[in-house]
Write a structure and sequence with these properties.
Layout lengths: L1 H17 L11 E3 L5 E3 L7 E7 L4 H17 L4 E7 L4 H10 L5 E4 L7 H6 L6 E5 L5 E4 L3 H11 L3
Length: about 160
């Protein structure tokens, strides 16, 4: 019994370290794009960024994509960016979904899928998962959706 408790206490902090929190700095992401160039989340400092974890095979993700595309098109000129992180293991399936869903915002892929260190760092246990990041790189919202997400984006853009 003492051994089980000791192991649980040792593992417990790892679980909390892996998960991000509102008002905490967003962990760096550096992953390849469709052209294999590495893109870093920190390159978008100064913009409001929605980090969107998804995959081509995820039905709810694909259903959410049109709304995210609409938000991006509506607010990109004001300093809003979407940083899509695919957990696809097959690059061709991901690129096909990007094209079909008419995604024009920044996309990167972690072909480690559910073994993704980036997803682990963000505490992603299911997709879609999203993190709204301020211009200063601070997490402002986690898994915000719909009207609430749009209102939060407008607030962070100063509108």
């Amino acid at each position: 019994m003492k051994t089980i408790l000791a192991v649980a206490l040792l593992l417990l902090p790892l679980h909390f370290i892996a998960q991000v929190k509102i008002n905490a700095p967003a962990p760096e992401i550096a992953l390849p794009s469709g052209t294999d160039s590495i893109i870093k989340l920190s390159a978008f400092r100064g913009k409001v960024v929605l980090v969107d974890f998804w995959a081509s095979w995820c039905g709810p993700c694909r259903m959410a994509n049109p709304f995210v595309v609409k938000l991006y098109n509506k607010y990109k000129a004001q300093g809003f960016e979407v940083f899509g992180v695919s957990l696809d293991t097959k690059k061709t399936a991901w690129l096909k979904a990007v094209k079909k869903d008419k995604i024009t915002y920044t996309q990167v892929i972690d072909t480690d899928g559910w073994q993704s260190k980036v997803a682990e760092r963000y505490g992603v246990e299911a997709i879609p998962a999203s993190f709204l990041i301020t211009k200063d790189g601070i997490i402002a919202a986690i898994d915000a959706e719909g009207k609430w997400l749009e209102e939060k984006i407008k607030q962070l853009l100063g509108q």
